[in-house]
Amino acid sequence: MRVGRVVKIGQAAHASGVSPRSLRFYEDMGLIVPGRCANGYRDYCTTTLDRVVVIRSLLESGLPVRLIKGALPRNPLDPAGAELAARAEIRQEVEAYRDRLAARIAALTTQHAALEQYLCAADDVECHRT
């Protein structure tokens, strides 16, 4: 399998849209494993950068690092590792997280509607705010 071009941390941060600090954090959390040069500098291949984009997306969705770590294949270069992403217990945890998030959204929507109703009543006008 072709791994792709290898880049240093600054270039990797720019290419993936995250900071060098985030890349180090992902490494510390075991989410990515960059290569190392003889001088100790980190090297990031395109496969790792693609993984960073997925991690960033999952983090932005609010998924905890613990679940992201369990959901991602351990070795992105190992095709059998993709099966790890479908493990039943991780999938169930992600689904439960999604369901809790949906419940929170529903509660916030109800609260929002109540506030809109209050504001309309306080203005003593008919409102159609959204």
TL;DR?
This protein is mostly helical. It is built from five helices and two strands; from the N terminus they run ααββααα. The N and C termini lie far apart (51 Å).
Assembly state here?
single chain
Radius of gyration: 21 Å
With strands numbered from the N-terminus, the spatial order across the biggest sheet is: 1-2
Enumerate how many helices there are, as a single number: 5
Question: Between the first and last Cα atoms, what is the distance in angstroms?
Answer: 51 Å
Q: What does the main sheet amount to?
A: 2 strands, antiparallel
- Helix and strand content put the structural class at mainly alpha
Shape: elongated
Strand content: under 5%
Poorly predicted tracts of residues: none
Q: Spell out the helices and strands N to C.
A: HHEEHHH
Mean pLDDT over the residues = 83
Task: Produce the secondary structure layout.
Layout: H1 9-16, H2 20-28, E1 35-36, E2 42-43, H3 46-60, H4 65-71, H5 88-123
Antiparallel strand pairs: 1-2
Task: Please supply descriptive tags for the structure shown above.
two-stranded antiparallel ribbon, 58% helix, 130 residues, mainly alpha, 5 helices
What can you see in these coordinates?
There is one protein chain. This protein has 130 residues and is mainly alpha-helical. The chain has helices at residues 9-16, 20-28, 46-60, 65-71, 88-123; strands spanning 35-36, 42-43. It has a two-stranded antiparallel sheet. The chain is elongated. It starts with 8 loop residues before the first helix and ends in a 7-residue tail after the last helix. The model has no long low-confidence stretch (mean pLDDT 83).
